[in-house]
Amino acid sequence: MNAVYHYTSERHHLPAILSSGELRGRADMPGYHPLVWFSAHPFWEPTATQLRMVGGLIVPQTFEELYDVFGCVRFTLPANDVRLMDWRRACKFAGIPRRDRWAMEAVGIEVGGDPRHWLALAGPVPLEELRAERLEGGQWLPLEVTT
């Protein structure tokens, strides 16, 4: 593994990332320490495909739906970056209880994720430290980002 990736949507999240000039950590629950999540998955991290609202219900969307509607971007970090924590260590650092970690693992595995691919670091991460790529025609191509 030479690189890890922070996968995100081009038309939904990328503008805020570019305006901030950095990847910022996120904590999904009160009391958790925010982390910037990365994946060793070489094409797309299945857990990065967000849910959507349909008729008042929250339903999963497919990767193809996400790609068609929002576009896909990833930020690349060298896999040997010393700040990276594996999944368990990251959960411990963030203050995520074991029961919640197990639940997140189960949900992630159900959608095709692999906790062995999940890594994190305490952010923020300046964009200058990362390489950006856009998914076009099934290939990840360089994306020039300016902040």
What this model shows, in words?
The protein is globular. The longest helix has 13 residues, at 98-110. Strands 1-6-10-11 form a four-stranded antiparallel sheet. Strands 3-8-7 form a three-stranded antiparallel sheet. The chain has a two-stranded antiparallel sheet with strand order 2-9. A hairpin with a 2-residue loop joins β4 and β5. The chain is of the alpha+beta class and 147 residues long. The chain has helices at residues 14-20, 63-70, 87-94, 98-110, and strands spanning 3-9, 22-23, 36-39, 51-54, 57-60, 72-78, 85-86, 118-121, 125-126, 131-136, 139-142.
Structure summarized in a few sentences:
This protein is an alpha+beta fold.
N/C terminus separation:
29 Å
Q: Count the DSSP helices.
A: 4
- The spatial strand order of the largest sheet comes to 1-6-10-11
How many E strands? 11
Radius of gyration: 15 Å
Order of H and E elements: EHEEEEHEEHHEEEE
Q: Determine the mean pLDDT.
A: 87
Strand portion = 25-35%
Q: Kindly state the percentage of residues in helix.
A: 10-25%
Structural class determined from secondary elements: alpha+beta
Task: Give the biggest beta sheet.
Answer: 4 strands, antiparallel
Q: Show unreliable segments.
A: none
Shape: globular
Secondary structure: elements and pairs:
Blueprint: E1 3-9, H1 14-20, E2 22-23, E3 36-39, E4 51-54, E5 57-60, H2 63-70, E6 72-78, E7 85-86, H3 87-94, H4 98-110, E8 118-121, E9 125-126, E10 131-136, E11 139-142
Antiparallel strand pairs: 1-6, 2-9, 3-8, 4-5, 6-10, 7-8, 10-11
